[in-house]
Amino acid sequence: MPRTGFIILAACVVLAAASPRGETQQAANPQKAQPTYVGSQACQSCHPQEYARFKKYSKMSRAYTHVLVMKKGLTENEYQGCLKCHTTGFGKPGGFVSQKKTPRLAQVGCEACHGPGSIHVASSDPKDIRKVVSVKNCQVCHTNGRAGAFRYSPMLYGGAH
Fold first, then answer.
1. Does residue 74 sit within a domain?
2. What is the CATH number of the domain that holds 119?
3. Looking at the domain assignment, is residue 13 inside a domain?
4. Which of 9, 41, 53, 128 is packed most tightly, with the most Cβ within 10 A?
5. How far apart, in whole angstroms, are the C-alpha atoms of residue 156 and residue 135?
């Protein structure tokens, strides 16, 4: 291929990659997109038993409510610190912002442990979500300083699912 033809071909490739059409195709392909938070209600239709048990038995499903009870005695910085572990995805892209803006993420929900679920909800593929939650995932919030009485096994099998 002559040098001029190669330059034209390369320019076309660059322009096509930068075009809105290219961006739309990439956004339409959920495998290339970053997962976002959708809220536990999106999990309910495919996982009704797990959802029902979680809502009924898990203290995590009411974690934000506990923070609201204590909020009047907290500074704004303390309150913001609580939101990291008492809501779903606070401080992360697409995570909890406020009760008014993101009410579906106001409590600790499925995605706090299993990760953002938008791709999994769209595909129903178990590979698109963290299926196995380890104690390491829990220790992000359940540290000795915050939750000294935390016991991984009983919580996992006696309330979370």
1. yes
2. 1.10.1130.10
3. no
4. 128
5. 9
Percentage of the chain beyond pLDDT 90 is 54
Question: What pTM was estimated for this model as a whole?
Answer: 0.72
For residues 145 and 141, what is the distance between their CA atoms, to the nearest angstrom? 10
Q: Which residue has the higher pLDDT, 58 or 143?
A: 58
- Is 28 part of any domain? no
Q: What is the pLDDT of residues 108-158, one digit of tens each?
A: 999 999 999 999 999 999 999 998 888 888 888 887 766 656 666 655 555
* 3-state SS assignment for residue 52: helix
- Does any domain span residue 99? yes
pLDDT score of 57: 87
Count of Cβ atoms closer than 10 Å to residue 7 Cβ: 11
Give every CB contact of residue 75 below 8 A, 6+ residues apart in sequence.
Answer: none
Expressed as residue numbers, the domain containing 124 is 42-160
8 A C-beta contact, residue 112 and residue 61: no
Q: For CA atoms 25, 29, 32, 36, give the dihedral sign.
A: positive
| Number of Cβ within a 10 Å radius of residue 129 | 20
Euclidean distance between the first and the last CA atom of the chain, given in angstroms as a whole number: 62
